[in-house]
């Protein structure tokens, strides 16, 4: 592993240059010393201690689509190393596993009392038809590890799914696991994405549905024809209040997640179903400019505070004001 900076600072663990850029600029503007650890492939000397600092894990579930097929395994190794040495890690190994696996996330959310769509895991493409026959229709099929709506398909019947499997129309899942999930018909023309930093709500983002399953808000995710949509696709609500936020805060606390975006959809009877969480949270620049708020600035401030908290005992020791 090669880190860009050796001094005590904030280290950002990631694998996307496009998605790192806005955070890099926010940290620079906030005066927070920082470097990056690029998670694609590398050599990690486990006999040496990690550098001092705060380590922010924001690995993306779509890393494999950018050619970084070993990013998750690399992240696991780095996080084991960091945690073994007691380093301050934001979004730990448990956070990584939940963000990289829809099966793990759905099980954890449901066990925490958060309503989720009915979900059946299919271990291997050959078991998809069996999983589909267990579901009410229509239903969604998703790769276990993905993002940006990649690989998500809507099926109206189990026979339709079987035909797609038999014809080879379905793509592969990076880990061989698929989820077959209840399709929630949204009461509203949007889904809600709760942007959480330090387990506190920064804002809720309303993402207009109807243009496919790619609801990633960052400009790097924009589809070629998205500009043709009438009106803005993303709208921020800063005054959003809902009991679900307390559930999300408790869930994040329980599973050692500190910075994340969590998405839910409301059905026709007003019931909220939570279906996704990501730790590489990105923000829509146009929506933020309209609202006069910046998620990356919120992250930069939080990381700066955590670094200052970490360095305070060290400064006291160096000045002789602390006693061992």
Key words describing this protein structure:
single chain; 324 residues; alpha+beta; Rossmann fold; 4-stranded parallel sheet; 32% helix
Count of DSSP E strands?
13
Largest sheet: 5 strands, antiparallel
Quaternary: single chain
Strand order of the largest sheet: 11-10-9-12-13
Total domains, how many? 3
Form type? globular
CATH architecture identity of the largest domain: 2-Layer Sandwich
Question: Can you give the mean pLDDT?
Answer: 89
Q: Mind explaining what this structure looks like?
A:
The protein has helices spanning 17-29, 71-84, 93-100, 102-111, 128-133, 158-167, 244-254, 285-291, 295-319, and strands at 9-14, 34-38, 53-57, 88-90, 119-123, 139-143, 153-155, 177-182, 190-197, 200-208, 234-237, 259-266, 272-278. The longest helix has 25 residues, at 295-319. 32% of the residues lie in helices and 23% in strands. It folds into three domains: 9-90, Rossmann fold; 99-114 and 186-293, D-amino Acid Aminotransferase, Chain A, domain 1 (2-Layer Sandwich); 119-182, ATP-grasp fold, A domain (Dna Ligase, domain 1, 2-Layer Sandwich). The protein is of the alpha+beta class. It contains nine helices and 13 strands. A five-stranded antiparallel sheet has the order 11-10-9-12-13, with helices on both faces. It has a four-stranded parallel sheet with strand order 2-1-3-4, with helices on both faces. The model is unreliable at 316-320 (pLDDT under 50).
């Amino acid at each position: 592993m090669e880190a860009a900076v050796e001094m005590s600072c904030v280290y950002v663990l990631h694998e996307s240059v496009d998605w790192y850029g806005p955070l890099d600029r926010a940290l620079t503007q906030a005066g927070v010393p920082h470097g990056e650890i690029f998670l694609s492939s590398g050599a990690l000397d486990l006999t040496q201690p990690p550098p001092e600092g705060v380590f922010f894990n924001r690995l993306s579930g779509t890393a494999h689509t950018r050619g970084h097929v070993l990013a998750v395994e690399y992240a696991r190794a780095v996080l084991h190393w960091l945690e073994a040495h007691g380093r301050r890690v934001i979004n730990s190994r448990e956070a990584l596993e939940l963000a990289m696996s829809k099966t793990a996330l759905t099980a954890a959310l449901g066990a925490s009392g958060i309503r989720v769509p009915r979900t059946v895991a299919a271990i291997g493409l050959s078991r998809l038809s069996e999983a589909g026959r267990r579901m009410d229709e229509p239903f969604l099929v998703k790769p276990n590890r993905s993002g940006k709506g990649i690989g998500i398909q809507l099926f109206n019947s189990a026979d339709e799914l079987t035909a797609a499997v038999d014809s080879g129309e379905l793509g592969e899942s990076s880990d061989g696991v698929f989820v077959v999930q209840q399709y929630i018909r949204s009461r509203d023309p949007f889904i809600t994405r709760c942007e959480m930093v330090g387990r506190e709500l920064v804002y809720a983002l309303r993402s207009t549905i109807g243009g496919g399953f790619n609801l990633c808000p960052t400009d790097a995710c924009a589809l070629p024809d998205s500009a043709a949509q009438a009106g803005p696709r993303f709208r921020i609500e800063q005054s959003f209040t809902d009991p679900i936020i307390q559930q999300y805060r408790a869930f994040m606390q329980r599973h050692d997640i500190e910075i994340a975006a969590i998405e839910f959809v409301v059905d026709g009877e007003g019931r909220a179903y939570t279906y996704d969480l990501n730790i590489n949270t990105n923000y829509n620049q146009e929506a933020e400019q309209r609202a006069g708020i910046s998620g990356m600035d919120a992250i930069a401030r939080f990381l700066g505070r955590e670094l200052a908290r970490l360095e305070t005992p060290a400064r006291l020791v160096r000045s002789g004001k602390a006693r061992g």
